[in-house]
Amino acid sequence: MAYHLPVLATQSVDALAIEPDGVYVDATFGGGGHSRLILERLGPRGRLLGFDQDEDALANAPDDERFTFVHHNFRFLKRFLRLHGIREVGGILADLGVSSHQLDVAERGFSYRFEAKLDMRMNRQGEKSAADVLNTYEPEALQEMFSRYGEVRNARSLAQRIFAERHRRPILTAADFLAVVEPLVRGHRARYLSQVFQALRIEVNDEMGALKGLLEQSLEMLRPGGRLAIISYHSVEDRMVKNFFKTGNVEGKVEQDDFGHIHRPFKTPLGKAIRPSEEEASRNPRARSAKLRVAEKPTTSVVGI
After folding, report:
1. What value does the mean pLDDT take over residues 134-145?
2. In which domain, by residue range, is 165 found?
3. Number of CB atoms found within 10 A of residue 21's CB
4. Are 192 and 252 found together in one domain?
5. Which of 70-74, 134-138, 169-173, 267-271 has the lowest mean pLDDT?
6. Distance between CA atoms of 88 and 126, rounded to whole angstroms?
7. DSSP string, 226-291
8. What is the pLDDT of residue 195?
């Protein structure tokens, strides 16, 4: 079984407009599919750094002297680029989806399809597991998590049921959690469970906090003319990316100078988001919700009315 099928692979790498001698970052190395395409376009003096906090990804690192594997979360982008003597890069690519490997290995605890401990940590050295969240969060925090990150319509009822059931016995495995969730399933079962598990995974790994850090540091670390390509799968993260490209902050707060000119930190060379083709979505169902957005750091300040 393949570790992971890269989503929008050609489109995202094309969007970086790679220069053979440039320095690039694959912020979500995973199975290495995007990285291999980047390396194909780099010359002998080009350089690529691949970030991944999951130690399992190290086994996929290519034997190529131009490639450096960084076993850390991309939220530490600036720190590790500086550590490797890099002041700026020509492009950064990030695929924000969870890898097929993580979903398909039962003991990682990412999927409701397997009986396993509720883990969901992308970095297995992390302090907080999914079971920790379910057994310690107050109902209000659980409701916010399921509503915001999973768009679960009955998030309040779900949070209250978790709170009540965990006092009878701890929720430690996928089977424990399913027993709590099943009576509240609304609509299509697989979709509902996917939304619930997605919300839990996002919370465990602080994915939105990490994305905010990546975006802010990317703006600083890109050279003028450098490009940032982000593939998102969830409305919250896509909104953060879209807002940042437009305004320089994830909240979308518009900044103006004394003359009313709006500060625009990026150009968007491809315009609207790019979606997978029907053929790719059919071949790889996990690509169906993907959106690719691309931004370019201008060589001069960009303002608008």
Report:
1. 98
2. 126-204
3. 12
4. no
5. 267-271
6. 29
7. EEEEEEE-SHHHHHHHHHHHHHSSTT----B-TT-PEEE--B-TT-SPB---HHHHHH-GGGTT-E
8. 92
